[in-house]
């Protein structure tokens, strides 16, 4: 190699292989400042000289000797940045990069004090802290020594997961159906005839989806009638899918019409339609499976003397269908009531405005929420009075029992919807700089904490009312209410009715928690899709894949871990607590041995 260099003439053009052999050391020396330039930036007057030294060289440019030019090393040194020694700095980009990296990285464990937190970092921090707090609070609640608190905690987790999955599946199916039928839409705010036709077609599609979800509730509960765990999951999930399909239907109608009387007419028509749909489903079940339902089934069983072993599975799946229909229709109707109440208080223009509300608006919303808190209590006492005079109250699938149950659930659910809006408005009021997604997450965390405290306090009140009712029954000398005197019967009835009303309020708080976290997760998923260009271009496909992926990940754990504990009764939780207390000392002794 040296001999070949000696024989070569200075005027000869150097070959590429010879240049690669001769220039490896200068190239290595030139890479060192390039690597260090991402960590340190030029400061002060030396920035101009550094920029001059780092001026890019044209590709293929050579010096007088014919060698390729490389960026020269800077003559200025960045002295003493963040406690480091003087290190040469070379800018590898334009002046904007020097401004972005103006501050050097501090030592580990040191706070900069000048770092600006962006919206993404703030949202991530809130999510991490909120999830940690919520997870540990739930761990305390599911191990609470009171059986009712445990029961509410497991039901609240099951309801939250069911609502989340129901909204995901409903949005995926709705978007797919709308995209398949309405692939071209007019611009928002246009008044073209095609856009008006599309709105009517979208309304029809949403109505068909609601009827399909209602029919799916009956099919799933009938299919899994002999599998208690799957029956419970089908009842919860299908009921929530039906509810949110109906909510989408009414919301779409409210967006198309800004006249309040028309909304009232739509509310009344939908209410009568729900009643007719439930009676039609009941007629079909009677025609297909026989034996009737409600009082008709009870009279048939009493007259024929059917064995209890055959009666139990028939009642279970029929009751599951009735409960799923009642819950789905009640959530749907409570949402419509919430829209109408807020439209009367704030107007149709202010009802959809989620930000910019005053303290007076919060006070009005809080008063409306208190009115719906008292409604379940009044309905419970009224139902207790009617139950003593009606034989149908003893049959859970009778029309009377279902109507009274729906009225109580609607009042409690309306309070939940108003509470959800109240906490969102309050969070947006006190933290106006937060984005919409971060307000959803923060309000969900605050609502969860307040709901957990309220559940514990209300459970103490319900336990006290139950204890008073039992003491009054014992003092009267009878174990049941039917044998008491008139005065003792009234006092026991009031205590028992108050206890049931408080339990209904607790269930509504659990629903509010589920709805709040569903909105928070929906906002997070929407942000992920919109911020990813590939997913945003294929929004419908991304929505479907996310729904399927989340369902495949969450549903097995929900069915195997949460559902068995959520479907347990309060008595079963009491037995589990007693067994844990009895086996605790023995287990500790065995562990020590």
Automatic annotation (TrEMBL):
The chain crosses the membrane at residues 120-142, 154-173, 203-221, 230-250, 262-281, 366-382, 403-426, 438-458, 545-566. Keywords: Membrane, Transmembrane, Transmembrane helix. Coiled coil: none annotated. Signal peptide: none annotated. The keyword Thylakoid does not apply. This is Uncharacterized protein. It comes from Alexandrium monilatum. The lineage of its organism: Eukaryota, Sar, Alveolata, Dinophyceae, Gonyaulacales.
């Amino acid at each position: 190699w040296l001999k070949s260099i000696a024989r070569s003439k200075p005027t000869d053009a150097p070959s590429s292989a010879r240049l690669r052999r001769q220039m490896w050391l200068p190239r290595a020396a030139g890479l060192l400042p390039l690597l260090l330039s991402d960590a340190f930036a030029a400061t002060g007057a030396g920035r101009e000289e550094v920029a001059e030294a780092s001026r890019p060289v044209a590709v293929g440019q050579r010096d007088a000797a014919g060698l390729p030019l490389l960026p020269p090393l800077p003559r200025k040194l960045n002295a003493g940045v963040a406690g480091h020694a003087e290190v040469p700095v070379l800018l590898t980009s334009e002046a904007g990069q020097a401004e972005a990296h103006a501050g050097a990285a501090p030592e580990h464990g040191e706070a900069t004090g000048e770092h600006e937190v962006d919206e993404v970092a703030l949202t991530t921090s809130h999510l991490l802290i909120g999830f940690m707090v919520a997870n540990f609070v739930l761990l305390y609640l599911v191990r609470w020594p009171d059986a009712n608190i445990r029961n509410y905690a497991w039901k609240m987790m099951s309801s939250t997961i069911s609502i989340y999955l129901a909204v995901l599946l409903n949005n995926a199916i709705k978007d797919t159906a709308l995209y398949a039928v309405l692939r071209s839409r007019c611009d928002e705010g246009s008044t073209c005839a095609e856009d008006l036709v599309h709105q009517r077609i979208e309304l029809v599609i949403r109505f068909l989806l609601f009827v399909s979800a209602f029919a799916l509730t009956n099919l799933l509960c009938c299919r899994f009638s002999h599998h208690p765990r799957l029956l419970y999951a089908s009842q919860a999930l299908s009921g929530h899918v039906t509810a949110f399909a109906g909510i989408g239907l009414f919301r779409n109608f409210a967006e198309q019409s800004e006249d309040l009387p028309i909304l009232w007419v739509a509310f009344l028509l939908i209410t009568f339609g729900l009643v007719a749909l439930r009676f039609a489903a009941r007629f079909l079940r009677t025609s297909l499976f026989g034996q009737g339902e409600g009082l008709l089934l009870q009279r048939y069983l009493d007259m024929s003397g059917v064995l209890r072993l055959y009666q139990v599975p028939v009642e279970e799946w029929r009751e599951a269908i009735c409960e799923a229909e009642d819950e789905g229709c009640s959530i749907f109707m409570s949402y419509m009531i919430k829209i109408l109440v807020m439209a009367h208080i704030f107007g149709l223009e202010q009802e959809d405005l989620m930000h910019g509300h005053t303290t007076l608006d919060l006070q009005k919303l809080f008063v409306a929420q208190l009115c719906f808190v008292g409604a379940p209590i009044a309905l419970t006492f009224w139902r207790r009075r009617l139950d003593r005079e009606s034989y149908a109250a003893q049959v859970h699938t009778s029309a009377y029992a279902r109507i009274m149950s729906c009225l109580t659930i609607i009042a409690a659910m309306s309070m939940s919807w108003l509470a959800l809006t109240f906490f969102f408005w309050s969070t947006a009021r006190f933290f106006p700089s937060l984005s919409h997604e971060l307000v959803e997450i923060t309000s969900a965390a605050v609502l969860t904490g307040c709901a957990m405290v309220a559940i514990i306090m209300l459970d103490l009140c319900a336990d006290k009312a139950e204890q008073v009712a039992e003491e009054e029954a014992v003092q009267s000398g009878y174990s049941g209410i039917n044998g008491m005197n008139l005065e003792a019967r009234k006092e026991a009835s009031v205590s028992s009715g108050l206890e049931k009303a408080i339990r209904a309020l607790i269930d509504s708080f659990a629903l509010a928690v589920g709805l709040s976290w569903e909105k928070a997760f929906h906002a997070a998923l929407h942000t992920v899709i919109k911020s990813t260009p590939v997913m945003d271009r294929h929004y419908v496909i991304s929505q479907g894949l996310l729904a399927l992926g989340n369902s495949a990940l969450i549903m097995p754990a929900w069915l195997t871990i949460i559902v068995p504990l959520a479907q347990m009764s309060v008595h079963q939780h009491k037995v589990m607590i007693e067994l844990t207390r009895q086996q605790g000392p023995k287990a500790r002794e065995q562990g020590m041995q």
